[in-house]
Amino acid sequence: MPIDHSNAQNIAQVLTEALPYIRRFAGKTIVVKYGGNAMKDDSMIASFARDIALMKLVGMNPVVVHGGGPQIGAHLEKLGKKSEFIEGMRVTDEETMDVVEMMLGGLVNKAVVAALNQQGGRAVGLTGKDGGLIRAKKMLVGGKDIGQVGEIEKIDPRVITHLEAGGFIPVIAPVGAGENGEAFNINADVAAGKIAAVLQAEKVIFLTNAPGVLDKDNKILTGLTVPQVEGLISDGTIYGGMVPKVRYALDAVNSGVKSAHIIDGRVDHSVLLELFTDAGIGTLIRG
Ligand SMILES: Nc1ncnc2c1ncn2[C@@H]1O[C@H](COP(=O)(O)OP(=O)(O)O)[C@@H](O)[C@H]1O
Ligand SMILES: CC(=O)N[C@@H](CCC(=O)OP(=O)(O)O)C(=O)O
């Protein structure tokens, strides 16, 4: 039987085209924020995990920061509690904080870790409490105390750099520790932006359930700058959960991260499409 070389040809072509991008990002830290809305079923998580495992395999240093807002909301509902958000931040009483810590540090974190390991990665899950990673204090939202919502006081990235050096993929749940070890609920976009800044990452990529930041006519805004962003927030084009994403994407690039991207995490291989094409996908935010 004749040997069919066509598949090998395809693979060779793809690898050749990928090579300049692999070279560009090899050894670079890339923070990927994995939103709860982009992990709605096992096949979405598996697809995400394949991309991240591949990044590691070709020499990049992916750092995953995940959310889990919808998963927390679903569990609260089972307990008969309604979710309430102010400016994209969950109102977090003591009982809610327990659920947040259980869901983010437990079920959601381990689902992401297991999926990565299933794809041949060596992932290690941690919360901001581990290794003194995230020190937090109460965040006032719109001047109001809305419970255990935390803002980041300090990040000690040593646990991340140690894991990276050992060949592991850090998977971080955004729960911080207060002065007395108490838990704070930190919005995952805030945590990802700040961690990217402290690591001076090459990129921070936010995976969400929209194709990017959309304008009033639902068209993707492919590029955004600082003055545009505040205008779009104040006229209501950017609202709800997109507000912290855009604000902390900007904060990251203003703090030295080369670029921030908001992309559709529901699309297969969205991270690779962003990394391995010149045009990228979704919305690019520059300082
Ligand atoms: N201008 C906008 N473009 C796209 N999405 C927007 C915009 N403004 C608000 N949103 C909302 O923000 C949501 C994404 O934020 P969020 O629900 O917090 O997701 P995630 O779990 O990924 O953090 C979108 O699904 C959409 O409903
Ligand atoms: C303070 C605050 O709002 N914390 C978030 C943390 C999870 C998160 O940010 O999840 P997504 O990225 O999936 O939205 C929450 O409790 O929902």
From TrEMBL:
<comment type="similarity">
    <text>Belongs to the acetylglutamate kinase family. ArgB subfamily.</text>
</comment>
<dbReference type="GO" id="GO:0003991">
    <property type="term" value="F:acetylglutamate kinase activity"/>
</dbReference>
<dbReference type="InterPro" id="IPR001057">
    <property type="entry name" value="Glu/AcGlu_kinase"/>
</dbReference>
<feature type="domain" description="Aspartate/glutamate/uridylate kinase">
    <location>
        <begin position="28"/>
        <end position="264"/>
    </location>
</feature>
<dbReference type="GO" id="GO:0005737">
    <property type="term" value="C:cytoplasm"/>
</dbReference>
<keyword id="KW-0547">Nucleotide-binding</keyword>
<feature type="binding site">
    <location>
        <begin position="68"/>
        <end position="69"/>
    </location>
    <ligand>
        <name>substrate</name>
    </ligand>
</feature>
<dbReference type="GO" id="GO:0005524">
    <property type="term" value="F:ATP binding"/>
</dbReference>
<dbReference type="InterPro" id="IPR004662">
    <property type="entry name" value="AcgluKinase_fam"/>
</dbReference>
<protein>
    <recommendedName>
        <fullName>Acetylglutamate kinase</fullName>
        <ecNumber>2.7.2.8</ecNumber>
    </recommendedName>
</protein>
<feature type="site" description="Transition state stabilizer">
    <location>
        <position position="245"/>
    </location>
</feature>
<feature type="binding site">
    <location>
        <position position="90"/>
    </location>
    <ligand>
        <name>substrate</name>
    </ligand>
</feature>
<dbReference type="InterPro" id="IPR037528">
    <property type="entry name" value="ArgB"/>
</dbReference>
<keyword id="KW-0418">Kinase</keyword>
<feature type="binding site">
    <location>
        <position position="185"/>
    </location>
    <ligand>
        <name>substrate</name>
    </ligand>
</feature>
<keyword id="KW-0963">Cytoplasm</keyword>
<dbReference type="InterPro" id="IPR041727">
    <property type="entry name" value="NAGK-C"/>
</dbReference>
<dbReference type="GO" id="GO:0042450">
    <property type="term" value="P:L-arginine biosynthetic process via ornithine"/>
</dbReference>
<dbReference type="InterPro" id="IPR001048">
    <property type="entry name" value="Asp/Glu/Uridylate_kinase"/>
</dbReference>
<comment type="pathway">
    <text>Amino-acid biosynthesis; L-arginine biosynthesis; N(2)-acetyl-L-ornithine from L-glutamate: step 2/4.</text>
</comment>
<feature type="site" description="Transition state stabilizer">
    <location>
        <position position="33"/>
    </location>
</feature>
<keyword id="KW-0055">Arginine biosynthesis</keyword>
<keyword id="KW-0067">ATP-binding</keyword>
<keyword id="KW-0028">Amino-acid biosynthesis</keyword>
<keyword id="KW-0808">Transferase</keyword>
<dbReference type="InterPro" id="IPR036393">
    <property type="entry name" value="AceGlu_kinase-like_sf"/>
</dbReference>
<comment type="function">
    <text>Catalyzes the ATP-dependent phosphorylation of N-acetyl-L-glutamate.</text>
</comment>
<dbReference type="Pfam" id="PF00696">
    <property type="entry name" value="AA_kinase"/>
</dbReference>
